Amino acid sequence: MLQLKNIFRWYNSGANRAFVLRDVSLEIQKGEFVSIMGPSGSGKSTLLHVLGMMDEPNEGQYLFLDNNVLNIKEKQRAELYKKHIGFVFQAYHLIDELTVYENIETPLLYHGFNSSERKSMVADVLDRFNIVGKKDLFPNQLSGGQQQLVGIARAVITKPDLILADEPTGNLNSKQGEEIMDLFKTLNQEGVTIVQVTHSEKNAAVGSRIVNLLDGRVV
Description:
27% strand
């Protein structure tokens, strides 16, 4: 599904380069559930942002569904992201002024679905995630676990091939965290490829493979 070849990411710090990723090569097959682990500052989130086309490496090659991501126009890249990738953030990134229903509906507006299609798709997702009763509430009226559920519902509503999750249970208690991981497990069994960044060995073990990063390198 995707392949990184010799990826470097650095920031210029005066006359020096501060490396965040060093010579990272990684291949992920369709249907895998990969956990990325490593200490703080090891480059995990940067790697996830490179995979999600939110951050561009300084060197290397990124192939996604046979597209050479770093050689195509930004508009094509945005289309690839929109069509194939769902992102789940640790800090939820819900829009405070929108209800649960409207937050979940937002990606469908970008995809150009008509009103009745959007209504049907949002209804399905609300039902699946058991949050029908929360649809008219605003994010600040929800618990952390509920906000993360809404964030995941928003990420999966367009049926992406790949879900990227950055510490998806980082702000949740253990029971909420287990529910989120069970949900990921189910999505993966349904064929969705998942890459998660996590500090939790228990959560990492839910995946089918663990990639360890240290000082920007795969170890």
